[in-house]
Amino acid sequence: MFYKDERLALFIDGANLYAAAKALGFDIDYKLLRQEFERRGKLVRAFYYTALLENEEYSPIRPLVDWLHYNGYAMVTKPAKEYTDSMGRRKVKGNMDIELAVNAMELAPRLDHAVLFSGDGDFRPLVESLQRQGVRVSVVSTIRSQPPMIADELRRQADNFIELDALREVIGRPPREPRPEREDAPAET
């Protein structure tokens, strides 16, 4: 599937990949993910796309975004929009599809292989266009979750489908052990 001398780029739909990994019950170690694809070819760029809530005091994704930025990922972010739906529920919208598609199209002439981490069927026309330009496209998502996290039309369009669950041992973070109680702590009576 991968050739050592091919130029490849990663396009990570952050929200989609997070949801797929969560559905499979594991967390991704982004350092291991980058190393894995550096091993598979000549990694030109690793993009990570996410929307951020700008007005929040603390965003749980901010530490990840900062870490990725300082560890070789090209971060593409934009402010998320908050709104109230017709049922009165607070919703957050932050679609990054256009940014991902534009970056992929711009980089296509300098790539042999694009790896898309998303199951969003909206990317099918992008995959088709990249293929017309001579770029092989692998899609990473999962069919092992209920429901499957990848749109069937995207999986069929891709040159390769990589099951995220099959990468668990390579890019998954080991589960955290519960912290042991300190031995010098007083015993409860």
From TrEMBL:
Database matches in Gene3D superfamilies: 5'-nuclease
NYN domain boundaries: 7-165
Pfam families for the chain: NYN
GO function term, MF aspect, one: RNA nuclease activity
InterPro entries: LabA, NYN
Top-level lineage group: Bacteria
Transmembrane segments: none
Start and end residues of each stretch annotated as Disordered: 169-189
Protein name per the record: Uncharacterized conserved protein, LabA/DUF88 family
Organism: Phaeovulum vinaykumarii
